[in-house]
Design brief:
Elements lengths: L3 H17 L11 E3 L8 E3 L14 E10 L2 E13 L2 E10 L2 H5 L2 E10 L5 E10 L2 E10 L4 E8 L4 E8 L9 H5 L11 E6 L4 E16 L2 E11 L10 E7 L6 E8 L2 E11 L2
Antiparallel strand pairs: 1-2, 3-4, 3-16, 4-5, 5-6, 6-7, 7-8, 8-9, 9-10, 11-12, 12-13, 13-14, 14-15, 15-16
């Protein structure tokens, strides 16, 4: 029998993998300085870099993944992208399946959007149902006021709280970032970085472009380039080893994602790509 607390963490990581692996090209300009929480020293974060010349975001795209935990399939994840004017709207879902539902059920939903020219996110919302835990969270970015606001609601306890902190003039979020990186050049041996809005702070996420590999998934075999995100603070810190494999072509489709943690490994394998 799998321990329920491990599955709880597994549900969180299922959501985390779907929404946290992100990267962007290092900008040559000086990084922005953002006040840190609690009156500590200001935090320096990098600037977002626009997409490289010739890159085109998909008009509509649905990516479906099988999600394996250790040696068995534990869930599915679906990402839907759709252009709306200058914005890219993203919705995602993460669900446990089969026997996993009998032990610990996960039904998670996520939404975000970002400007396709600049990469700036408007915010990140999620609806979490993991076992008996039901929480909604809405993170919005107010760039004119250099402020991010997080409103969290516990639907079981009937409680809510609001948190505010400073942000620079343009940040990505933990869902938009995974697709924003697709618009950047990925060069072996060259680290990338991006500013990530993280509710309580803004953090610099560094991406190591590690290797080129052929990856076999249910959707086919792909030539890919593998990256790994790291950070000194925020939601990326102390999460174990996280890697993502993008197609090594102009599309940069994420075909595989993996999180290695002390209690096991979660892997996303691309099952299908649909233009809808």
């Amino acid at each position: 029998m799998i321990h329920s607390q491990r599955l709880c963490r597994g549900g969180a990581i299922l959501a985390f993998c779907a929404c946290m692996i992100a990267g962007a090209q290092q900008n040559a300009s000086q990084p922005a300085t953002v006040p840190a929480p609690g009156g500590t020293a200001p935090v320096q974060v990098p600037s977002l870099t626009p997409p490289f010349n010739g890159y085109s975001f998909p008009q509509k795209q649905t990516l479906t993944y099988t999600v394996d935990w250790r040696v068995f399939q534990a869930g599915t994840a679906v990402f839907h992208l759709e252009q709306q004017g200058p914005m890219m709207k993203i919705s995602a879902s993460a669900d446990t399946i089969g026997a996993t539902n009998m032990i610990y059920q996960v039904v998670d939903r996520f939404q975000s959007s970002f400007n396709m020219q600049a990469g700036c996110s408007t915010g990140f919302s999620k609806q979490i149902q993991e076992g008996r835990r039901k929480i909604t969270s809405d993170l919005t970015f107010n760039y004119p006021q250099n402020k991010q606001v997080l409103v969290e609601r516990n639907l079981v306890k009937g409680t809510s709280k609001q948190t505010e902190s400073s942000i620079p003039s343009c940040v990505t979020d933990s869902l938009s970032g995974i697709f924003y990186v697709a618009s950047q050049q990925l060069l072996l041996g060259k680290d990338l970085s991006l500013p990530l809005g993280d509710a309580l702070r803004s953090v610099a996420v560094t991406i190591k472009v590690e290797a080129k590999e052929d990856i076999k998934t249910p959707a086919g075999t792909f030539a890919t380039i593998r990256v790994q995100p790291t950070a000194d603070a925020g939601v990326v810190k102390n999460r174990g080893t996280i890697q993502i494999w993008y197609t090594d072509d102009a599309r940069h489709i994420p075909v595989q994602m993996r999180a290695k943690l002390f209690w096991g490994t979660i892997t996303f394998h691309l099952q299908s790509i649909e233009a809808k």
